[in-house]
Every structure is written in structure tokens, then in C-alpha cells.
Amino acid sequence: MIPQRFQVVIIGGGSAGTAAAVASASRGMHTLLIEKKPYGGGNATAAEVGTICGLFHQNKQEADWLVKGYAKYFAERLDEDPLIHSTTNLHGIHFLPYRIKDFKDLVVDELQNAKVEVWWNATICSITTEKNSLHLANIEKNGTIVPIAFDAIVDCTGNASICEMIQHTMIQENEYQASARVFTIEGMDPDDEQVVQLIIWRALTKAIRNGILPETYNHIYPIQGSFVNGKGSFKLSIPIPVTHKSGNIKELKSYSEEAIEQIFHYLKNEVPAFHNATLVSIADEVGIRTGPRPKGDEILTGKHVLEAIKCKDTIARSAWPIEEWTLDQKVIMKHVPEKDYYDIPVGCLTSPEFRNLFFAGRAISADREAIASARVMGVCLQTGYAAGILAASLAKGEDLSKALDLIQKKQILY
Questions:
Q1: If we measure between CA atoms, which residue out of 342, 332, 353, 347 comes closest to residue 309?
Q2: What Rg, from alpha-carbon coordinates, does the chain have?
Q3: CATH no. for 4-173+291-411
Q4: Which residue(s) pair with 94 in the sheet?
């Protein structure tokens, strides 16, 4: 079968993949986005994260935009909902809540407007490597294997599955950040977020003390900004190591589903505030925070983050703290200096092994500390857009310095 030809191929339709595809198409490239699910958004929708982090400077005043260009544009489109507005915690960390359906709809709208060809329910089966480049792949689409050819490819899979497939040099750990599962309840009375959190904490503490529920069930956190008219979402931390080994995701899913069902059953039957409540949904996927990353031309480090290091070849900015979730359900926060930010250099998106391979989102080249900051969606949108511009420039036969100049004009100097 003769391969279908595209100039740029994006693997993964999350926030990074969407931004990459839109950026590539904006440069006139025939762009294909491949997504394994029937909808877009990645973790933002499948794991129902519920908030976009990494958009703002960190200070204790009103939210002050740090990001520019496409990342800001995308977030502002989500912010059009009159019930949604940016919020902050006691540490001056600002973020933007969103509705899951709004995010899904926005992804589709953005891809359609940019005239990106999208293959939903499709997965990449194999890639042919040729010296230091990639040009052919087999895609499973609707039960059929379809060969494709391309000039440049961007790995936006989150877990760097494309890089692993071609045996790219990787940055790996034995265990990654603890995962979580989101679920939504409606019909709560009262519907105040802080009051509900206190009621749940007291109820679960009592149930665990009396041996009714396991001790590991007491780490549930409301998703800030999700509570409206008695309906709200919660995040259950999962006390099982994330290893990305075979069967690990299945184990995480099984544990979290059983725990959520048991917790809700107890609350509904034993706690008056939940007597009329309904478990509306459990997110399709476990929220995986970090995973393997490719080793790029440059590695973003914790030092870059904590010392707010700037660079001339920056393609993105972030002020989000290093946020590490541990198996004992604690979160360790290390902050960027207040009102400051760090730069992400272009080399964190480029491969020293394959000249036409780029990476974005949670799969950028970063050490354990740095990815704990750079994994958030405000950064993923920026690195995705940058990777799309880089891939388009390579496909055009342009010097990548021209791509860097364009990226900086669009989302650094804009």
C-alpha cells in the first residue's frame, strides 16, 4: 500500500498535541494529528484534571498572566464561561478551572479551524528509522493498518511512547510521581467546597478508626473551582507506585475504582450531607503526573527552575513550583522566586539522535525535579506550540534559527 503523505505528524491530542498541530498548520503544513481516544484533551479530559496550572506569575495579588501567544489565547477561550474564573490558594499560586466538556469542544474547534487532519481512535504501531531520521510509520485506524510518510514528527504522548518505540535515549526513574483518580458527585448538601472537605475528612477518619474502610482511603481532595450547585469533583490519591511497567496502569485503575465506589457508598449511607448524592462519573483515566522522557539536546534541571534561570534560546516560560506528590500522599513544593520565572531552552524539545523528531508536553527533556514543574498544562501548551513551529520549519527546509525567532515573537516577545 502506498503511504499517505503528510508534512508534519503529531502523536497525541492533549494540550501539547493540539497546540503543536495548530502551530504546524498555521505555517501551511499538511498536518496529521493521531489520537488513541475518540476525543482530545489528553490528561485534561481523560483524567479530568479540572484546572490549568502554569499560566500566571505567582504572587499574592490578582492573577497576572505570564504566558503569551497561543497558550494565553487557548486559556482565554476556556475562560469565556461566566461561572469560571482564575483562582488562587494561600501561597499565591494561581490557576484556571475549566469544564471538561468545554475543553473537549475547544480542542475540536481549534483543530477544525486550523484545518488539521485528525485520526481519532488511532494508534501508531511502528516507525521506520533511517540513519538519523524518521519518515515512515504504520498506524492502526478503524482496525486497519495504514502506512504514512512524513517530513517531521512530534511526540506529544505524555509518556514519550514514540521515543521509547524507536529506542531513543531516555531519562527514567524506577518510580514516578504518585497518581490520582478524579470522580464527580452531585446532590451534595451543602455544596460549599471547604465545608464538604471537612465533612468528608471527619467521616473517613471515623470509618478508618472503626475499621470500616482501609487507612489508604483517607486522601481525597476537592478540585478547586469545580463546585457549582451541589456538584463537585474530587481527587483520590493512589498509594501504588507508578512504574510504567506492564500491568501497572491496570492495577492503578482497579484500585482507584474500587476505592471510589466504597468511599461513595459509605458517604451516601452514613453521612447526611450525601444522602441524596449521586456518583456521576469516574474519570476515564488515572491521572499520571510524570513518566519517562527522552534525553534531548539539553536537559531542563531543577536548578533552572529554582534559580529562575533565563536563556537566549528560550521557547517557553514558567513560574510553577516544583510539585512532587509522594506515595504517602504528601506534596512537596519548591517555589520559583516570587514574581520571577524560568526559561525553557529549545534544546529540551529537540533530539540529538533523530533530526526530524521533536517532543513536547510532559515528554520534554527534563530531570525529575524540573518535570515536576514543567508538566503542567500552561507549559504544555507553550512547548507544544513551539514544537509544532520547529517541525513545520524543518519540513519547509528552513534553518531552525528561523523557527526559534518565530516562536519567540509569538509567545515570548508578543
A1: 342
A2: 21
A3: 3.50.50.60
A4: 88
Task: Give me the tens of pLDDT residue by residue for the chain, a chain 414 residues long.
Answer: 899 999 999 999 999 999 999 999 999 999 999 999 999 999 999 999 999 999 998 876 777 899 999 999 999 999 876 555 556 554 568 889 999 999 999 999 999 999 999 999 999 999 999 989 999 999 999 899 999 999 999 999 999 999 999 999 999 999 999 999 999 999 998 878 889 999 999 999 999 999 999 998 988 988 888 888 889 999 999 999 999 999 999 999 999 999 999 999 999 999 999 999 999 999 999 999 999 999 999 999 999 999 999 999 999 999 999 999 998 767 899 999 988 999 999 999 999 999 999 999 999 999 999 999 999 999 999 999 999 999 999 999 999 999 999 999 999 986
Q: What residues does CATH 3.50.50.60 cover in the chain?
A: 4-173+291-411
> In sequence order, which residues have a C-beta less than 8 Å from that of residue 16 and are 6 or more positions away?
42, 156, 158, 360, 361, 362, 363, 380, 381, 383, 384, 387
**Ordered alpha helix ranges (H), 63-192:** 69-78, 100-113, 161-165
User: Which residues of the chain are in CATH 3.30.70 domains?
Assistant: 180-282
Whole-model pTM? 0.95
**Considering Cα of 26, then 344, then 176, then 286, what sign does the dihedral take?**
negative
Choices 3.40.630, 3.30.70, 3.90.79, 3.40.50: CATH for 180-282? 3.30.70
Q: Is the Cβ–Cβ distance between 83 and 325 less than 8 Å? A: no
